[in-house]
């Protein structure tokens, strides 16, 4: 049946520019759609929301939930369940500031605006530029490097590492991924080794950055182990960078395809925060997440057996007409916009405040220039990754 190949078709690079008709097909096929490889695909809003909040759904890879596995490498806390997840997440959030306050991230608004201004200034007198290479990529990588305390001369090292790690984390039908996984593991080891070494240099000599705060945690019972420090800082780089690149780039592409909304935002810049929320729903940077049930679980009358790979199509849920009015319409004034752009439940993205600031700042700085811009290629070339979806390049002619 066609529904049994939906994950394969969604993962097919040919459908990267527009997977949304496939998501509509997924929602029509039913809340739970079994795939040929044995996994289950879910694309309806209310079912996804319930499962993201269900403690019986594990975020841990099957290699960790399967007691027969010999896999011992600790995953990042994005892929760990409570109570271990809660401990690591709480420790990592502390350097951001006190609970329920923006803290360190909000204090970076001025620096983020300055970095963005420098990137935009470099485009002066250019007849063509690439949104990804010239703005969307360098902004978040520079911000996260400065937040973590990476020396500026070493910032370029992280582009290669993040590209390989993100490619190794893709979701798709079961296939031979040995080489991809091997490359991803090597990149993680190199990046983790660099960050741990940099942190160790600051042990006992705080420098005011996040690495320094993590390595100089005063309570011995709360300190991260070397392995935890490596995996946690890698996660901060990937989550704090890759998704923001896609959010900014998808935002520019969406606005250029809708000149009326672009003109409206240029006239009413105060709408930008709501426009970013709508972009997170309409063209989100994260499209899918995997969960593993720890017991047989019933979803809309269908029993999903324990240990089954369950793929939650977040981007499909955020366009479910049973939850959102006219979901295929981009509306920056949309009310009640509780999307899955940052996930939901205990694994809700805690870097969301930083991503919002960066997207609002970048789009606000680009708006004055987009009125005279046109897309060189539409659709643009996309990244291979189906889970973290966004253009690889977005060249504009001015």
Task: Describe what this molecule looks like in 3D.
The protein has 398 residues and is α+β, with helices and mostly antiparallel strands. The protein has one domain (2-397): Cytochrome P450 (Cytochrome p450, Orthogonal Bundle), CATH 1.10.630. The protein is 47% helix and 8% strand. The chain is built from 17 helices and ten strands. The strands form three sheets. A five-stranded mixed β-sheet has the order 1-2-8-5-3. A three-stranded antiparallel β-sheet has the order 4-10-9. Strand 1 (33-34) and strand 2 (40-42) form a beta hairpin. The longest helix is centred in the middle third of the chain and has 31 residues, at 226-256. The radius of gyration is 21 Å and the shape is globular. The termini are far apart. Residues 63-72 have low confidence and may be disordered.
